[in-house]
Amino acid sequence: MGDELETMLTDRLRIHWMPGDWFPCSPEAVAHYAAKARVCREYQPARVIEIGTRCGYSLAAFHAVVPAARFFCIDGAVDQDSPACLDHWHKVVEQLGIDAELVVTNSHDLRAVPPADFAHVDGDHSYEGALADLRLVADVPVILADDCDNDDVRRAVEQFCVESGRTATYYADGLRTAAVIVEE
Q1: In what order do the strands lie in the sheet with 177-183?
Q2: Contact at 8 Å (CB) between 142 and 166?
Q3: Residue range 129-152: mean pLDDT, rounded
Q4: d(CA 55, CA 38)
């Protein structure tokens, strides 16, 4: 397996994985969430915004490295399994004692979000949608954008960086490619 964080997350995620999820709790999935957690741990945020929270797997990984952080999570509930996923999200939050608020709405309907030091963008994967999500968290100093192996998402990250004067550092975690977007 991997390092100590990955070993700890393997246990945490397996215990808190939604039964019957189409997305399996594989070693690749654990490495994916461990990579996200490493980025979060590096910046030690006190407030985190998450766009696209689904079942709470990223939330559980982030909470493992910044347990005192407060989380503001947004999910559009647009998938067929969204009711079950969001029900599971609530169970994860309760079982782990996470200080988290969930807003179920299309992130594109929001005009503002609470202040935060770190944002995780894993919502709409279209170019327009990903760019809108990035713009929504433009005031957040560190943004972790997932699914940059999707050409539309990567183009949105590049456009956002041009607009905001930020830089993106890409990394592949064995499952997907993500970008850490910071102010210069």
Answers
A1: 99-104, 70-75, 47-51, 118-121, 142-145, 177-183, 166-172
A2: no
A3: 98
A4: 20
Instruction: Indicate whether 21 pLDDT > 80.
Output: yes
In words, the CATH class of domain 4-183 is alpha beta
pLDDT in tens, 86-134: 999 999 999 999 999 999 999 999 999 999 999 999 999 999 999 999 9
Q: Do residues 119 and 36 lie in contact, with contact meaning Cβ atoms separated by under 8 Å? A: no
pTM of the entire predicted model? 0.96
Buried b (16+ CB within 10 A) or exposed e, 3-42: eebbeebbebbeebbbeebeeebeeebbbbbbbbbbbbee
Tokens linked to 2? 């991997």
Q: Where are the beta strands (DSSP E) in the chain?
A: 47-51, 70-75, 99-104, 118-121, 142-145, 166-172, 177-183
Contact 43, 76 (CB under 8 A): no
Question: Count H helices, E strands: the chain?
Answer: 6, 7
